[in-house]
Every structure is written in C-alpha cells, then in structure tokens.
Amino acid sequence: MKDPYQVLGVERSATADDIKAAFRKQAMKHHPDRNADDPHAAQRFKELNAAYQILSDPQKRAAFDRFGPAGFRPGGPGGPFGGGVSVDFADLNLDGLFGELLDALGIKVGDRGDIQTDLSLTFEEAAFGAKKTITYDRIAHCDTCGGGGAKPGTRTRTCGTCNGRGKTRQAQGVFPIPIDRPCQACGARGRVPESPCSDCTGTGLRRKKEELEIDVPPGVDNGSSKRIDGMGHRVRNRKAGTLQVTFRVKSHPFFRRAGDDIVCTLPITFAQAALGDEVEIPTLDGKGRMRIPAGTQPGTSLRIRGKGIPKKIMGGRGDQLVDVQVEVPTQLTDPQKELIQRLADELGESVQPQRRTFVDKLKDLFN
Fold first, then answer.
1. How high is the pLDDT of residue 195?
2. Given pLDDT bands bounded at 50, 70 and 90, which one contains residue 123?
3. What is the largest CA-CA distance in the chain?
4. Which CATH superfamily is domain 115-249 in?
5. Which of 38, 67, 100, 268 could join 272 in a cystine, given CB atoms 3.0 to 4.6 angstroms apart?
6. What angle do CA 219, 224, 225 make, to 5 degrees?
7. Is residue 101 predicted with pLDDT exceeding 70?
8. Residue from 208, 247, 242 nearest 225 by CA
9. Considering only CA atoms, which of 93, 73, 91 is closest in space to residue 82?
10. How is the chain split into domains, by residue range?
11. What is the CATH number of domain 4-87?
12. Which numeric CATH code is attached to 252-328?
C-alpha cells in the first residue's frame, strides 16, 4: 500500500480543499480515457482513487495518520483498504472527464448540447412583439446520410464491440461495480457503417448553419430569454439540447422603460408652463397631442393612460409618463432682459407660492 499523501502529492497538513484539488488535477492527468496508449494509466488512476478515499474521509485519514498502512489491513482499525467511502464527483466538477460515466448513473454534468445566442430588438419590437429570424451554428444530423453515418447506398452492420447494444459494460476504479457506458466504437447507435459517409466521416453529425424564426412575445424586457427545446447541439446519442435566445433591446431616442410604463422627457418654454398649451409628443403608436396645464411646474410628470407596454398577465397596456422640463432662455437681448425684469417686478412673490414658502422656511432657520 502506497502512502496516500505521496500518491496525491500533498503535505500531511493539507486541508480538505487541498486534497480535493490535488485529486482533481491528478485524476484529469492520469484518467485511462486520456491515456489510451499507456497500459499503466488504469493502475495509477486506481491508486489515486484509493488515496483520495482515505484522505477525503476524516476517520480513515485519522486511522492512517495514527497506524499507517497497518490500519488498513484486514482486521486493522481502518478496515479493509478502500472500502465504504463515497467520492462526490459533482463537487469536483470534472466536466468532460467523467461526463459519460456519471451520465450512466443519472448524474447530469458536462455538455448537454445547449446553445446560448442573443437577439437584437428595437424598443418597439420588444414592446409589441415581432417575428424575427436568427442564424446560428449548431451540430445536427448529417444531411447526406440522414444521421446514420453510412455512405448513401451502403448498409450498416451490427457493432462488434457492443453486439448491437449501443453500450459496453466496464469496471472503473471509481466505482466498485461494472456499469454501462455508451459504446465508443459505434457512438452508442449499436450499428456501424460498412462504408462511412464522406461528409461526416461516419459520425452522423455535422456542424451547420441553422435559420430559425422566433416569435417574440409582446412586452419582453432587455435580458429576458426564451428557451426552445431540441434546437441546440445534438450530442452523440442524446436528443438535441436547448437553444436559449436572450433578448437585447436597443435604446430609444425618446423613451425608457419603467416596468409596464414608458417615460419620456418633454422640454417646454416658460410661457407654455405658465400659460398652458397643447403640444405634439411622440408615443409608441406614432405622433400624439397632450395638453399642458397652465402653471405646470418643472419636474411635473404628466400621465397618458394606455400608451405604455402591453401587460403580460392582466392584459391592457401600461401608461406613458411625460416628465416636463422647463427650459430657461439664454443669450437674451437687452430688450428681452428688460421685459423679463418688468415681469419679475410685476409678479413679485405673491404668485410664486413655492418660493414664498422656501423664503419663509429660510427666515425661520436663521432667526
């Protein structure tokens, strides 16, 4: 029995995380699937697994630290060597290394053929929905052979490796019992082509450009997504993965979104704010008109019912909020300055309740 610390290359003071990281690194390096030409790889991998079984279990590690290899001989305090310890491969995150092995046990890790792509939308398309066509790369059945892997006009025969089962039974050092794994020789199909298809070299799969029409529902927001089953990559003998389309909504020159409402800023003159006016405004439905009440203050938000985003659940639409921005004139001529000064003298403070309240509060603060 070899020293597990030496096998994993860690110090005796190593933490549980140090041991896990060392095992992951060594397992990836020495796994038999990655060293098919090395006859000793399987034995090294078994030693790594045995070492990890001891050091990952606090009781077995303590037994080795106290008794050494003697603690793991039959009848010893550590029990039979390598027995009774479970290795949590999900925590080790060995995607691609044990993917097929764990998949046979129903543990979902590794590549499942999912694809993520972005779809650009205008503000109006996101609000009202649209039909859009996307183009993306995916791995799918070969069109030449129909996914069978055989050259057109030729036949397939039963795989001699798995005898048509599509699976081979193998024992791994990681698990104490043999398990079924997808057959590497036939790609888990159970049959191999007598004459492989020249376009896919017998795999039955090819990378291709896919065009797909997407129904964009009304009211989607930036960053929301839609999942389409069966339109991802086709990985070996499994069904095709999922295509996830993430919506990217472009900014609008006038509008921004606030839930189901939209907000725009409307600049008006001092005269329009003071006297009131009817002005033209943009809406998602085109040009519209809105009444500015006399005496409208800067920062006032006016509401237009039913001109916002279509609601997903309750039906109807949100509102359009119009933030009023009063523009102060600049670059005044001398006659214009005189007119404004005369107006200020005429108004005084009697018709400016906000300013009068502010001045009163200011007096109270310093008195």
1. 85
2. very high
3. 110
4. Heat shock protein DnaJ, cysteine-rich domain (2.10.230.10)
5. 268
6. 110
7. no
8. 247
9. 73
10. 4-87, 115-249, 252-328, 333-367
11. 1.10.287.110
12. 2.60.260.20
